[in-house]
Amino acid sequence: MHGTVDVAVVGGGIVGCLVAREIVTRQPSSTVVVLDRDAIGSGATRRSAGVHFPRGATPRVQAMTEYSQDYYRRLRAELPGSPIRSVDAYVVSSGATPPAGYLAGAELRRVDAVPGRSVTLPPGATVWRCRGCQHADVPALAQLLARSLRPQVGIGEGLRVTGVEPCSTHVALRLASGDTLTAGRVVLCPGPWLGDPAWRTLVPTVGARVKRVVALHLDHPVSRRHSLVVFDREDAFLLPLPRRAHWLFSYTCPEWDVDPDAPPEGLSAGHRREAETVLNRYLPRAALRSGRVFCDAYSDSGEPQVRTLDDTGRVVFAGAANGAGYRLAPAIARETADLLEVPVGSRSLW
């Protein structure tokens, strides 16, 4: 792939696809290309649990959550067949007060129990019905977005970037195919590939690390009548997946500085013990035998990072969403496009 474009987006996950969509929506005449070392939606996006909660730990994340929730609602109408569905949700909290950080639209209402599941409540725990939750097949959504973008956006799959070389007038992207692409601006959406040699010297200013993400399968009967259950104190959740005929249990795995290119190790006995320690507080003797294991980028601040990385202002980082890439991707894309509209030297993106 040779040539010159206004913007090159590196990384074809859910964040990269929505960044490209935001750019061409604002400025249809822009030339944009999305590059991915593999296929669209094949990295961290492929392993995403795809859950949206109407909550945020900080005011900025809450605002991003609210924006993204409305964006996905509109996207379902704009892109027929979008694999996004609303789900009923119940939050198990320790204490009599509502769990913190939820948006007003969540309409938290205290109930006696989690319906449809025999969830055991520890002493002092309460249950709250939560509005506004949703679940998406995130890799399928990324592929649908890419398909809808193709008339306007170049999609370069299997094109690994080996060098990012900014100067005062452009950024040269060296590709493993031997080609060079020249871009006015570059947006890096690398997911957990923070340490890739192509941008290793640029990314340290972001302040992020890579953490293991583990979710396990619970082979209990499941249907569309079942609800998402969030365990607030443990930052874990139990998601019904009727299309796959099992539940997904996600917990916080305390394993840091993971290499996404290391040979897959799969689910370990330690992961199962950690997960069962949490889940058995609520579902005694629940057996977790399989699951999905990968990693994601987590920022030091606990908030997604959208910032320029070089002195010229032509290379932008977008990501480190702390395991909430799907949930916050529309807001990350909006902030990225806002940043791209800031003039660089004497020339703005547009």
Secondary structure: elements and pairs:
Blueprint: E1 3-10, H1 14-26, E2 32-36, E3 51-52, H2 59-78, E4 84-86, E5 89-94, E6 109-111, E7 125-130, E8 134-136, H3 138-149, E9 153-157, E10 161-166, E11 171-175, E12 180-188, E13 208-218, E14 228-231, E15 236-241, E16 246-251, H4 269-279, E17 288-299, E18 305-308, E19 315-319, H5 325-340
Parallel strand pairs: 1-2, 1-12, 2-9, 5-14, 12-19
Antiparallel strand pairs: 3-8, 4-8, 5-7, 6-7, 10-11, 11-12, 13-16, 13-17, 14-15, 15-16, 18-19
Describe the structure.
A hairpin with a 6-residue loop joins strand 18 (305-308) and strand 19 (315-319). 21% of the residues lie in helices and 31% in strands. Helix 1 packs parallel to helix 3 (138-149), helix 1 (14-26) packs parallel to helix 5 (325-340) and helix 2 (59-78) crosses helix 5 (325-340). The strands form three sheets. Strands 1, 2, 9, 10, 11, 12, 18 and 19 form an eight-stranded mixed sheet that branches. An eight-stranded mixed sheet has the order 6-7-5-14-15-16-13-17, covered by helices on one side. Strands 3-8-4 form a three-stranded antiparallel sheet. The chain is α+β, with helices and mostly antiparallel strands. It is globular and about 65 Å long. The chain has a domain at 3-47 and 139-206 and 302-340: FAD/NAD(P)-binding domain. It has helices at 14-26, 59-78, 138-149, 269-279, 325-340; strands at residues 3-10, 32-36, 51-52, 84-86, 89-94, 109-111, 125-130, 134-136, 153-157, 161-166, 171-175, 180-188, 208-218, 228-231, 236-241, 246-251, 288-299, 305-308, 315-319.
